[in-house]
Specification:
The complex is a heterodimer of chains A (110) and B (115). Chain A contains no helices and eleven strands. Chain A is mainly β and 110 residues long. Chain A is globular. Chain B is mostly beta strands and 115 residues long. In chain B, strands 2, 4, 5, 6, 9, 10 and 11 form a seven-stranded mixed sheet that branches. The chains are: A mainly beta (110), B mainly beta (115). Chain A binds chain B through residues 4, 6, 32, 34, 36, 41-46, 49, 89, 91, 93, 95-103, and chain B through 4, 31, 33, 35, 41-45, 48, 55-56, 58-59, 91, 93, 95, 98-99, 101-109, 111.
Chain lengths: 110, 115
Amino acid sequence: DQQVKQNSPSLSVQEGRISILNCDYTNSMFDYFLWYKKYPAEGPTFLISISSIKDKNEDGRFTVFLNKSAKHLSLHIVPSQPGDSAVYFCAATNTGKLIFGQGTTLQVKP
Amino acid sequence: NAGVMQNPRHLVRRRGQEARLRCSPMKGHSHVYWYRQLPEEGLKFMVYLQKENIIDESGMPKERFSAEFPKEGPSILRIQQVVRGDSAAYFCASSQDVNSYNEQFFGPGTRLTVL
């Protein structure tokens, strides 16, 4: 039972443009959502998070949007940079343990 | 470097052997989580421990896998009688307390290969 889904395995964007990564969830009990970035052979690095009582959180070039009625969240990266190329995981929790999506590989082309 | 440390980084075992993966949490962190990433998949929660206690082991396979976080020393994930399907990257994360959702810091992982 995949409670957190990232339906796009990969995304390619041009440098300077917006990257939009999407994530859907099924468990309405989740109260916190997070995005992690991961490079090969490294552990995930925390990027940005959002509580279920909010619908938007912004940190520099990264913005996360939460639509609770649709059980959908998205990560916007503006402007995208080649160094953003990595695998992005969304995660959700209400107990401390994180439930991860399958990941989306983002490639930002110069 | 006060980050989460895991060792070994790479571990090769033959079928039937035992694998021991170690995790030292960040200084001041008393909560440890283990996750497993199988090839082409996302990370899957395995177990959550506090010092000397297992809080949630709902993601642990019922057999051959065990975890501990003793009062002194690192957390250990132990896999007995490994099989090829155990080949994966095992990540440890730590946090200061259970409510620090956005401060769950991950280690670099241990890549287990079972021949």
